[in-house]
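Known limitations

Structure tokens in this collection are predictions and should be treated as such. Users comparing against experimental data should check residue numbering before alignment. To illustrate the layout, the record for Probable Fe(2+)-trafficking protein is reproduced below. The input appears on top and the generated tokens appear beneath it.
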Amino acid sequence: MSRTIFCTFLQQDAEGLDFQLYPGELGKRIFNEISKAAWQQWMSKQTMLINEKKLNTMNPDDRKLLEQEMVKFLFEGHDIQIDGYTPPEQ
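Generated tokens:
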């Protein structure tokens, strides 16, 4: 059964995540405010960040950096700046 939420990233009603994917209060906020579609957008950005910056998700500093970028992307309207990455022309 899918659930509909108001996605603060897309600014519209959209299908919510099936379960909380991230721990703690931030995870609750993502679960309640971020849609599957928005989360997928973040996942692809996160993959690019990990590859570009050669991050190790086992490293607490790298995880902290990813979390900061995730909050900026999902909740503050900042696109992820990746050195040497040029978005495809629309």
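For this record: The helical segments are 24-33, 36-53, 60-75. The mean pLDDT is 91. Please report discrepancies through the issue tracker.
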